[in-house]
Task: inverse folding
């Protein structure tokens, strides 16, 4: 098939954003499909100014649209609309050349060019939900305008109704979408996942990286890597870091960017790396001792599928969540970390991290469980194969529908 993937936040391993589209896209190519990607360079500066470039067998069309996670509401809206216009122009010119369009949301604006391709060229589309918009924006307190909410819900409903399949990143997202009135067999869950060969634990590299970064053998490194915004409960991380500050062997590493990045930059006993290329992030994961995952405490964020979790378990790191998560059963079954449910989550996070710091045997056992979970439940190769089958089936249904018309 000829597939067009609309993903404003596309990033390669040279960038610091999610590589979900890159990794799945190159697997689609390996399975014999032609893949075009429309994106901007927001999370991968190596793409800036590239225009059209071939990457891992994919033809990547890079917009000049500007986007930064620190942008305010109106600047973000302008960015989303700018990229939607770029994608719409491509669809108007070439939308009929594709067998299938894959539109990734958020932002929800990716539904606009996908819908236009369906109406103008009868090109079917699969709607991939990375974040459930507008619900997530409303829960985070970002989307307050009533008119914009009304429009966003109408656009969401139209995209869900007309998409040939919907792909979500967690069972909770799937349940939420089905509650909006969709048939359960139209929605497929393909979570974020683990690049097992990339993040493989390596004792030799671990020792070398720790030495290069000035970490002593008796120090315990806590890693937080990823977005640093309103949705990430940065206050919980800051409080946990403060509560462990008097424990000299504990060192915090922060890698990422966002509206609250400066808050983490100023945490005592922490080292702030900023946004890093993926291979540098791999090094931090291989050299750390535990990883922290945090999200806003609103109920919707229980459904998030955090890349930082999947990277951490692939590297064999115990994980500590600041709140409930759909991953709790896996964490419990594989014994690979802690989910903090206390009314004061930062206090419990700090206590769990101190427990890990003081018990090497516990760390080793949880780390082994983490790697086993990555291999048995969240292999990128396994889930990529499933994604290919979903798209092939969707393409077959679309072809039959076109023939009947």
Result:
């Amino acid at each position: 098939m000829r597939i067009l993937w609309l993903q404003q936040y596309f990033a390669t391993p040279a960038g610091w954003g999610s590589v979900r589209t890159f990794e799945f896209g190159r697997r689609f190519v390996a399975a014999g499909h032609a893949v075009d990607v429309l994106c901007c360079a927001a999370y991968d500066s190596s793409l800036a100014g590239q225009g059209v470039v071939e990457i891992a067998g994919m033809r990547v069309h890079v917009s000049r649209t500007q986007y930064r996670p620190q942008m305010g509401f109106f600047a973000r809206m302008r960015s989303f609309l700018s990229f939607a216009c770029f994608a719409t122009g491509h669809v108007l010119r070439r939308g009929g050349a594709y067998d299938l369009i894959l539109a990734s949301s958020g932002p929800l604006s990716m539904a606009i060019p996908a819908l236009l391709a369906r109406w103008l060229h009868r090109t079917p589309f699969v709607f991939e939900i990375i974040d459930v918009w507008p619900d997530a924006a409303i829960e985070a307190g970002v989307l307050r305008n009533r008119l914009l909410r009304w429009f966003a819900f109408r656009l969401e409903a139209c995209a869900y109704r007309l998409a040939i399949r919907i792909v979500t990143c967690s069972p909770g997202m799937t349940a939420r979408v089905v509650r909006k009135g969709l048939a359960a067999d139209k929605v497929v869950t393909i979570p974020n996942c683990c690049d097992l060969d990339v993040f493989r634990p390596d004792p030799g590299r671990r020792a070398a990286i720790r030495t290069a970064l000035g970490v002593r053998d008796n120090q315990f490194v806590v890693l937080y890597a990823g977005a640093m915004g309103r949705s990430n409960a940065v206050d919980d991380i800051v409080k946990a870091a403060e509560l462990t500050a008097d424990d000299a062997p504990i060192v915090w590493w922060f890698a990422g960017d966002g509206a609250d990045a400066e808050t983490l930059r100023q945490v005592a006993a922490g080292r702030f790396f900023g946004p890093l290329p993926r291979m540098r992030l791999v090094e931090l994961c291989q050299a750390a001792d535990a990883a922290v995952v945090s999200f806003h405490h609103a109920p919707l964020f229980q459904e998030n599928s955090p890349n930082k979790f999947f990277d951490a378990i692939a590297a064999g790191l115990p994980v500590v969540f600041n709140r409930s998560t759909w991953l709790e059963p896996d964490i419990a079954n594989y014994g690979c970390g802690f989910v903090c449910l206390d009314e004061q989550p930062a206090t419990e996070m700090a206590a769990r991290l101190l427990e890990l710091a003081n018990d090497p045997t516990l760390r080793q056992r949880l780390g082994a469980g983490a790697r086993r979970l990555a291999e048995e439940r969240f292999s990128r190769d396994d889930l990529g194969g499933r994604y290919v089958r979903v798209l092939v089936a969707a393409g077959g249904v679309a072809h039959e529908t076109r023939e009947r018309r």
Remarks:
- The domain at 203-377 is CATH 3.40.50.2000 (Rossmann fold).
